[in-house]
Write a structure and sequence with these properties.
globular, 12 strands, two-stranded antiparallel sheet
């Protein structure tokens, strides 16, 4: 059983709470008529649960499930649609073929999920700033909420470029504010600037390490890691180098000895983990593993997001990361289960595999007890290496790459090219929802997708289209991305 539980929701008027503790039962609490909202939230337990409502958004279907898997992985050269030929997955066949259309449900889910998270974060901050509770607790909760808001916006800016920046509690009946804020896109640079502001404030407010009963909540290291990644995407090489160095020098994190263990239950919240979405029995991440579970006989899932032959063929001989990321059919899995030839596809995402034999399992509820790794120490080593290389500090880049290669038993490098560095990132982070963004930001997308038999159009496909539903709802105030 995990130590942390995310609670459900905050709204403008009424706060409905679920327990963040290990209790399985739901706790629905509403302020009574004699209490004001602030009186109710000035109870420290209720203030914590207010922020839990922001964390809980990470578990929703429109956050890290089918649509996110589609736009971040099936689009890339790491993966194919999978499943069966006749099952389109609503629009996953189009994503697989880079046929990006503004009416696809995956883009709308990605937009709605993250802006719902922003909405929750803004409401939480509105109340937190007024509370008269222990100052240390209040400071920490504000830091956690700003980290989460930055995470939501980081996903949005990578997908769509500049988006509306909503950083305060909005009265949805204030039409002028809605039109001028909610329906007004900011630039990519302005969006990243807001992410930086939130993360810098979170770094100042968050603890270096959580107490045992707060495992899974954001820490200073999580905010530093996210900021290092935001700097990387903006090619702020010195800032990315320095911030990733802060994470490394903190001594809080280290590589696990066995690469394959990182994504198993035994690897959750261990030394390599910087931030994970905390799944639970009965209140877990909706359909994340179910979407990617092997399809056929026996049926373990929907069978989507299958590792591509291009990915499988890209690894160096002897790289154990290949068989840790890719479940080959037939084979005997790590828990002793035999992957049979009666499954539909020759490969599945091993990192998404949840063992019904050796791990906590919750049957057919569509929710998984498996945590989702969002920020890992190996990612920070790669960020440090790439920033160092770009700054001309090749020896530092080689040092960090060799830490990663040594873990998987590969020969150390005595020299390093940029392409070798990019390859190392692909192999280390395979099937972890970064590949599409990596090939776009590094200028590899057209060549990488051509090698996978697909056409990436420069000047258009770097961004996804703004969902048509959002443009309609805005009364055409939201502008569309070029080419769509």
């Amino acid at each position: 059983m995990k130590n942390t539980r995310y609670s459900l929701i905050i709204s403008v008027i009424v706060i409905t709470l679920f327990s963040f503790s290990s209790c399985e039962s739901d706790l629905n609490v509403e302020p009574n008529d004699a209490q004001s909202e602030l009186d109710f939230l000035n109870n420290p337990d209720n203030a914590v649960q207010l922020v839990n409502g922001v964390y809980n958004k990470l578990l929703d279907y429109n956050m890290y499930s089918f649509s996110w898997i589609g736009v971040t992985s099936i689009t890339s050269d790491d993966a194919d649609k999978g499943s069966s030929p006749g099952d389109t997955g609503s629009d996953k066949n189009k994503l697989d073929n880079l046929d990006f259309q503004s009416n696809l449900i995956s883009f709308n889910d990605t937009w709605n999920g993250r802006f719902d998270g922003v909405y929750r974060a803004n409401n939480a901050l509105y109340y937190l700033n007024q509370l008269d509770i222990d100052s240390a607790l209040k400071t920490r909760l504000i830091g956690e909420t700003k980290f989460l808001r930055a995470l939501f916006y980081f996903d949005l800016v990578r997908c769509f470029g500049g988006v509306p920046l909503v950083t305060e509690k909005i009265d949805i009946n204030d039409i002028e504010t809605v039109n001028n804020v909610v329906y007004k896109r900011k630039t990519k640079q302005e969006t990243y600037h807001q992410i930086e502001l939130d993360l810098l404030d979170a770094i100042d407010k968050l603890p270096v390490q959580n107490s045992p009963d707060n495992v899974g909540r954001a820490t200073k290291g999580a905010a530093q890691a996210m900021l290092a990644k935001a700097y990387l995407y903006q090619e702020k090489w010195q800032e990315a180098f320095d911030m990733s160095g802060n994470v490394i020098s903190s001594g809080q994190y280290s590589l696990m000895l066995n690469y394959a263990d990182v994504w198993k239950e035994i690897g959750e919240n261990k030394s390599e983990s910087i931030f994970e979405v905390q799944a639970t029995l009965g209140k877990g991440i909706r359909d994340y593993t179910n979407v990617q579970g092997p399809r056929g006989t026996p049926d373990l899932g929907w069978g989507f997001n299958t590792p591509s032959l291009t990915l499988a063929n890209s690894y160096e001989v002897g790289d154990i990361r290949k068989t840790a990321a890719i479940m080959f059919v037939p084979s005997v899995l790590w828990d002793g289960f035999v992957a049979p030839v009666t499954w539909n596809n020759p490969r599945y995402n091993y990192k998404a595999y949840q063992s019904s034999i050796s791990e906590s399992w919750n049957g057919d509820k569509g929710e998984t007890a498996k945590n989702l790794r969002v920020l890992k120490y190996s990612d920070i080593l790669l960020i440090r290496a790439e920033a160092a290389f770009k700054l001309g500090n090749v020896s530092e880049a080689i040092n960090k790459i060799n830490l990663i290669r040594n873990r998987v038993g590969l020969p150390i490098r005595t020299s390093l090219t940029l392409q070798q560095l990019y390859n190392e990132r692909r192999w280390e982070m395979a099937m972890e929802h970064d590949r599409w963004f990596d090939i776009v930001r590094t200028g590899q997308a057209q060549a990488a997708m051509a090698a996978d038999g697909k056409t990436f159009t420069i000047g258009i496909n770097e961004l996804f289209p703004i969902p048509q539903d959002q443009i309609i709802q805005s009364g055409n105030r939201l502008s569309q991305n070029p080419g769509y």
